[in-house]
Amino acid sequence: MGTPRAPDGRRGRARRYRRRRAAWPRRDAAETDRREIRRRIARLKRELEEVRAHRSRHRAKRAREGIPVIALVGYTNAGKSTLLNALSGAEVYVADQLFATLDPTTRRLTLPGGRLALMTDTVGFIQKLPTTLVAAFRATLEEITEADILLHVVDCTHANARQQAATVEETLSELNVHGRPILVALNKIDLYDGDLEALRRDWAVDYGHVVTISATTQTGLDTLLARIEELLAAGMITIEAQIPYTRGDLIAQLRASALVDQEDHTAAGVQVRAHVTPAMAAALSPFRTDTDATDDTPTQE
Hints:
Elements: H1 8-65, E1 69-74, H2 80-88, E2 105-110, E3 116-121, H3 131-136, H4 138-145, E4 149-155, H5 161-174, E5 182-187, H6 196-207, E6 210-212, H7 221-234, E7 237-243, H8 248-257, E8 259-265, E9 270-276, H9 278-283
Parallel strand pairs: 1-3, 1-4, 4-5, 5-6
Antiparallel strand pairs: 2-3, 7-9, 8-9
């Protein structure tokens, strides 16, 4: 006589139990994956905050030393990284693709008057940059908000060059970047067949400060650097100071970051007359000898 068969209800519960039992490893694996993803996200957020804090300290140090910062902005593929390479000799990744530069790359360059400056490459803009991408590119976008000058690079050969430039301006407005000088560099003139001076004048009507360049052939870069120096000087303060020899750090910072008109070595220290940033003027305030030390009005063009 065979074993009695279990009622249908009992057999159904047994089958369901076996199916659940078989599914446990899959559920455990999925939960393990979710926990690992959460851990990775938390770790990346901590690392991003550390990077952000690190960059913030660097920006504060640059401000104290009075070294000006020029941020390259522009529509993607306008040639910003190529320009940075040409101006500084930096080996910055260059590619004809969206967001080739995700992390801000900063390089030192020397202006025609001998003053040091820092130039930062940033992510290329696109139309309607999504909010999620703005958050992801916060490190590079923060460099824009802290810059002394924005160098807006435009591919002047592109059929939609005006629209692309307008997109960049709109994005800067959304980032609340206001009150900073903007120099427009019409790039890729080696591929442009028209009248360059007419092109420059036409853009100057809407954008004011405009130069024509080719980052690839390095045409017009001397003029570009001279215009950058002029714009920086427009926001500087003319001071006179006598810096004691014991403050060699300030003397070195002054020579690196200021436009020095006169420098004399006396028994009491170094007597200088120079155009400096407001931050540098504040650092030199204990040693100022000019009578207008309380009226620090920036130089006008």
